[in-house]
Amino acid sequence: MPTTKDFGARAHRLARERGPLCAGIDPHGSQLLNWGLDDDLEGAERFVLTLTEAVADQCAFVKPQSAFFERFGSGGVALLERVIAECRKAGALVILDVKRGDIGSTMAAYAQAYLDPASPLAVDAITVSPYLGTGSLQPAFDLASAHGKGVFVLARTSNPEGKQIQMAKRRDGRSVAQGVIDEVNLQNGDAEPMGSFGIVMGATIGACAAEGDARLRESTYGITHTTVSQRDSAHDLSQFNGPILVPGMGAQGGRPSDLPRVLGAAANFAIPSYSRQIAQPGPATASIRTAVEGLQEECRAAMGE
Ligand SMILES: O=c1ccn([C@@H]2O[C@H](COP(=O)(O)O)[C@@H](O)[C@H]2O)c(=O)[nH]1
């Protein structure tokens, strides 16, 4: 039974309060150099703590990219723990972009690492990969449900290489991505205002199926989105009832106007995510805050809020 303490409900509430934007915290070598910092642990620390101070009380969502911390070894992981704690203290929901996926028994250990509140790396939600089968992610769904956490499953990623596998056709006619979308949505049931199980849809991908296409599928083939999607060029989000993390904004070319194009009516579930672009005006925190405010407004307007 979903409650107001669940990730979906908390995300919905905070996005309305602070805006839908997710601030990515990626201590990328080139970003450190842009700020006049060395590409080492000390530089990364200055970079991420400055960004955290600028965005964590302003944004509903903060998304550290684990890889950029892990490259510094145990010191980087300790820094990640610190960023998580600071962001949560400032009231932001932390989505750790860690893209885990493994056989069920190992997946349970990954879930424990990030979704068990007793873990030093506990966050509000994580990204996971469904390429060992969406069913292999069940331990993460279960632990998230038990602790009011969220899970975002990669469906259509923002990189051009993703299309070949994600848009491949399954035997039932749906694309691999559509199968993932439908399977994740089963976890959400009829949760209100939305469930805690989300998908990742890059801002740089093709448009969603128009409403008319979804109706045509039903009337012509007597099928619904949960069985077969007849189009392979588009995805159908008309029944999706969870948060949609949208990376690829800014540096990769995605714009707020892409949100309704890619997500259709589900754009109101969008969490548009920017990493490099929000660090660009730094290191002055006031400049970062002003840029984030502008992007929040552009995203809200594009989402029809
Ligand atoms: O499909 C995906 C999934 C995740 N990402 C991650 O988002 C940020 C994007 O960084 P930008 O600087 O805003 O381009 C990065 O951490 C990726 O690993 C993605 O880009 N696409």
Quickly name the level 1 CATH class.
Answer: Alpha Beta
What molecules are bound to this protein? ligand LLZGTKA7
The CATH architecture would be Alpha-Beta Barrel
Largest sheet, strands/sense/barrel: 8 strands, parallel, barrel
User: What is the chain-wise order of helices and strands?
Assistant: HEHHEHHEHEHEHHEHEHEHH
Total helical elements: 13
In total, the number of strands is 8
Tally of individual domains: 1
Global mean pLDDT = 92
Indicate the overall shape.
globular
Q: State the secondary-structure class.
A: alpha/beta
Q: Any low-confidence stretches, pLDDT <50, length ≥5?
A: 215-232
The end-to-end distance, rounded to whole angstroms, is 28 Å
Which sequence of strands runs across the widest sheet? 1-2-3-4-5-6-7-8
Task: Give the strand content.
Answer: 5-15%
CATH topology: the name is TIM Barrel
Radius of gyration: 19 Å
The portion of residues assigned to helices is 40-55%
